[in-house]
Design goal:
Elements (H helix, E strand, L loop, with lengths): L13 H22 L3 E10 L4 E12 L3 E3 L5 H7 L2 H19 L9 E5 L2 H4 L4 H12 L6 E5 L8 H13 L3 E7 L6 H6 L4 E4 L1 H4 L6 H17 L2 E4 L5 H9 L4 E2 L8 E2 H12 L2
This protein binds ligand C2E and calcium ion (3 copies).
One calcium ion binds next to strand 6.
Organism: Rhodoferax mekongensis
Subcellular location: Cell membrane
Protein name: EAL domain-containing protein
Length: about 280
């Protein structure tokens, strides 16, 4: 590297090289994770105003053989960059549909919905609609149990195409939520054109809703907007009763957050619900 001129030295920068190697390792490890079924779907309950569990958001975890439980913040961005998010996202869809089908025959769970996070790259695959419908029919899941969480970032590209896909899936009974609403490139023009069922208030607005009047104003505005457009609204990241009460006073009807439960494995989700339902 010593002989390299100023212009080329970056190529041999040991730090860059280490980062490239790490990334390549992570890509390879993600491939192995899929093959060896190291991914796990955690569920976080979604709660109605009368404190009933109406469904869950599916959140992926990676149970690594030596590194333990790896959170999505550590691998989703790289998976998006290298394209692995597509097969990983399909695994999430299929696992959620399998769960919906298993629950269909259990009265306590038959009406539960599962919300799945879909990344922009996955949504923009030419066969995305087909992949969703395949996952539903392969497992015999009812489409009305499946909710897809989209983000504003997928509207940067071709909005008309996004709308066509959403309408096609909606026609089959699949519902849509706008995740992290208000944190991205939101445009109210898109909002009225997208066939959405739910707006999710991002946890960044919920966290300080009691102490920051700007956050409160935004949260209240989102609730009012959803209500007057005939959409449901779910507040995320609700950690205290006071936050919930504030949001309820302003017309919010559904919640998700550590106040009720952290995301947990399916068996724990089912067990805690069974406890919940005991007289
Ligand atoms: P998100 O979709 O906004 O999910 C909500 C995140 O907030 C989750 O983090 C959840 O565990 C966390 N959370 C829930 N309640 C509370 C609370 O009361 N307080 C606080 N501080 N946090 C709370 P998680 O599971 O680490 O997921 C992070 C992000 O990774 C997700 O944000 C989503 O963007 C992405 N992600 C997770 N699973 C998937 C997936 O299957 N596919 C894709 N494409 N992305 C996923
Ligand atoms: Ca989400
Ligand atoms: Ca969110
Ligand atoms: Ca988020």
């Amino acid at each position: 590297a010593k002989a390299a001129g100023r212009n080329t030295s970056r190529l041999f920068d040991p730090k860059t090289q280490a980062a490239v190697t790490l990334r390549a390792d992570l890509e390879a490890a993600l491939r192995t994770a899929l093959e060896e079924e190291q991914f796990v779907l955690y569920l976080q309950p979604q709660i109605s105003e009368d404190v009933r569990v109406t469904g869950a958001e599916a959140l992926i975890r990676w149970q690594h053989p030596t590194r333990g439980l790896v959170m999505p913040g550590e691998f989703i961005a790289v998976a998006e960059d290298c394209g692995m998010i597509v097969p990983i996202g399909n695994w999430v869809l299929n696992t959620a549909c399998k769960q919906l089908a298993l629950w269909a025959s259990q009265p306590a769970f038959a009406h539960m919905t599962i919300a799945v996070n879909v990344s922009a790259k996955q949504f923009h695959q030419h066969d995305f609609v087909e992949q969703v419908l395949d996952a539903l029919s392969r497992h015999g899941a009812h489409a009305s149990g499946l909710k897809i969480e989209i983000t504003e970032s997928m509207l940067i590209a071709n909005v008309d195409d996004v709308i066509v896909r959403m309408e096609e899936l909606q026609h089959h009974g699949v519902g849509f939520a706008m995740d992290d609403f208000g944190t991205g490139y939101s445009s109210l023009t898109y909002l009225k054109r997208l066939p959405l069922d739910v707006l999710k208030i991002d946890q960044s607005f919920v966290r300080d809703v009691l102490v920051d009047s700007n956050d409160a104003a935004i949260a209240n505005m989102i609730v009012a907007l959803a209500n007057s457009m005939g959409l449901s609204v779910i507040a995320e990241g609700v950690e205290t009763v006071e936050q919930m009460q504030h949001l309820a006073r302003h017309g919010c009807h559904a919640y998700q957050g550590y106040l009720f439960s952290k995301p947990v494995p399916v068996e724990r989700f089912e067990a805690s619900l069974a406890d919940f339902l005991k007289p």
